[in-house]
Fold these 2 entries.
Entry 1:
Amino acid sequence: MPASDAYALVVDHLTARYGSRTVLDGLSLRAERALLTAVLGPNGAGKTTLVRCCTGLLKPAAGTVSVLGEGPGSKHLASRVGLMPQSTGAWSGVRARELLRYLAGLYAHPIDVDALISRFGIAAYAKTAYRRLSGGQQQAVNLAAALVGRPELVFLDEPTAGLDPRARRSTWDLLRELRTAGVSVVLTTHAMDEAAELADQVYIVDRGVVTAAGTVPELTSDGRDLESVYLANTYPPGGRGGVVPPGASTAPGGRGGVVPPGASTASAGP
Amino acid sequence: MTTLDFTPAPGAAPAASRVVRHGLMEARLLVRNGEQLLLALIIPLGILVVGRFAGGRLGAFGELAPSVLALAVWSSGFTSVAISTGFERRYGVLERLAATPLGRSGLLAGKSVALVVIIIDQLAILGLVAAALGWRPAYTLFSALVAIALVILATATFASLALLLAGRLRAEATLGLANLIYVVLLAGGALVIPLARYPAAVRPVVELLPTAALGEGLRAAAAGQVLGWPLLVLTAWLLVAALGAWKGFRWTS
């Protein structure tokens, strides 16, 4: 297999701006096929912007993105990629079953909607308007909606935010199932336990750049837990002006386990 | 717990099927929305009925009926599109759908399908009610064709203006402003009240509004006459509005 085919996602020195504000500043990362790649970072780190660049919704100011070997935004690619956006992603008046049936109709070989509803435990509220669902129920519908088209790669933008512990565990089981089935997963989160439990590869992102990368064992090889590594590689809100310059070798904590952006991400895989 | 086979099997449904499916979905959601239904049907029907039995205070019924048809196009083409799109943007619906095989162009095409379905239904219902109340229009073949062209141009213009508004402002601001503009141009945009009843001093300004072009054009067509200037005014507005929407629309909030 050629090296480029080993990756579901290759992001190279990506820069993205909203007006004059730089949100991604030369970010580089790779996600291997059929593995789960976690992008960890605080609010405002650029995780959602990264996903938007990968789905073609936002045009980068510089750098390149390759999704399943294609440029983002093409119709062909859209049928191969699933997205669970961070925001609700559904009309307030739509019913869960109605939304899933509608989305299934956009694909050639969708998962059977009734089976999906059963798997996600949606049946009890399948006819309820989306705005009347609890946060956890909305998340379940959103996750099902991201998977209904049988994607090769799925972007999950904080899929367990606001879920109770049981629902989180259930989601984790599902993510393991996806990986076993051969689906590549890119997961953004700020839950350390989630990344530690699931991720084959972790990227810690802060202020638009990767400040550390590796497998969980690599990142925690000096005895620290993942949360300590995360805290050492991210700045507290308002704790520092500007972004970390691309290629900077000093992370906030200035300790080991830090991989300079774009340098060794490929070799840091499992 | 049911186990599912998540093995990837990507592929898109045919393009026409995606667009029609989206159009019907939006039309269904709009019909289910009480506030949108109020704008689309209840208010125009109310004006029609009150106008019929108010002894001509809202103008001759032969003029009021096409005015109400113009109002229906205005409410669905502008206000409904602006409000629904504003909240779709805020709720991340646009972000999700842009990443599906529907894509951005399919989404816009689907919105157009929904709009056409809604407006045809509105015009049919309002036209039948007006006829039942005694409206006897004097359309000629040519004036009817011009009326259809005006409705198409106006719908595209209003929808472009709506997308521009919804694509730039927050959803709540879009909601407030779209309703305000709806009422202001309903009352003062020569949409329902014929231009001739405005003070002479403001007529040159009012007749440049797209609502005036639609209202005056439809009233004339129903009387068997054809006016050229409304077509020109609407075409100019459409070019500006479509360019603005194309350049200014933002898919995320």
Entry 2:
Amino acid sequence: MATGEGFHDFYRDAYPRLVAQLYAVTTDLGLAEDVVQEAFVRAASRWSEVSTYQAPEAWVRKVALRLRLDAARRLRRQAAALTRLGTRPDPQPALDPEDRGLVEALGRLPRRYREVLVLHHCLDRSVQDVGAHLGIPTATVKTRLARGRAMLAGLLEEPTGQQQQGAPHA
Amino acid sequence: MPSADLDERLERLLRTVQDGVIAGDPAVVVRRGRRRRLARGTAGVGAVAALLAAVVVVAALLPDRLPRPAAVATGPAPGGVPDGAVPWFEAHLSGNPGELVVSVTAPVAARSRPSDPCWEGYQPQARAEADRMVVTVRRFRPRAPVPEGHLCTTVGLLRNVTVRLPEDLRGRPLVDGATGQRRPLVEGLLTPGWLPDNWMPLRMYRSGKGDVWRRQYHQVGGVRAGSGPWRIVELAPGPAERVTVVAIPPRLLGSWNRWPDTPVAGHTQVRGRRAEIDADPWRRIVSVRWREGEVAYVVTGRARQDATLRQVQELVVRIAQSLR
């Protein structure tokens, strides 16, 4: 199968969604874009195989989540270099104060809590699915969900500078 | 926090971020993927093949982002010194072919001369790409820093900046070069020429069958202090929590955000038309509504607890009368 067949539509449809999901996990839009882009390149390089999967988007998400742990640092440095060369500005999503407060709170959560919260709450994945996705036991997912929710609730109670200031261009 | 609340907030966050993300050119991704596949396939087939593979791998490592065309400054530099790019809020058709008007929030003193320490000037730039049009508004500030003890209000009015596009838009999405976010091209929604000090846009969205435009404004606190970091100053609240400007089809004019028994509080002139004012004491909202040809407008303010509806009416009417 030629890579172009179906890939273009798949990419255009899934890219914004996956970037938003990775942004919720990383709280860094530039990093989210970079790892999702790289995951799509990998999908394109083996599209004849990936396109036969039941959920190609889940495959790309899984690759992107894995990439963010190590390769993301390298990609970030490359992106920073590109930014210094003036090829693009460092992107920041335009959020209203409430959403910005949520992102700040997510950013202050330990990564292990943040990723289970996002996978479970944003993607409607069962705890079993989240466990399989992250390679951790179901009981661990439940524990992290409970602790993550409690921590997030506490963090959202705290006023932050951003929330007081408001978003200049929400 | 209840799970349902968290679900809702996370979902809204994702939707907001997703709406602002634009997928690039899939052909670039496919090309990179093809190079990867080639690099994998040619590995380990002898010295010559290895050399070829090395060439392919080197090619695969080259940046895939094609050099973008240079941004075209579409207006003269306004003086002062460049101070980075400032996000813009939305774009309107100016009425002239090949021209857009984008709105930025500006301090009240932005309209003064460059000798004013709080002056700000703007220069638009536009860059046409294959699948999008990138518009950047560069800000200029006075050469001299803000004097010690001098305060500049940071918000207060919308400033329109006219952008001459290097080529026709041809349906391409507009992207703010300052943020990388896609921004809406607003058709049929008017912009206030006046907002109270420290009011600014909150959000803008399109709904219905794509024929309803809404924009909300709210009050924020903030001043720019001379020297040192930004400082937040608590300000006295205005009479309304927020004000919404809506452009709707005329058939919705009478019922938009109005209960059937809402009393008419009076009439006023807005943009040369007779506008009706209604005040809902139960929901504590005041609306001004009128029709202009095939579009109708409603400007609504929701009162703060300690404000009177009369105060809200004055605010809403003044904003409506400033629309242009």
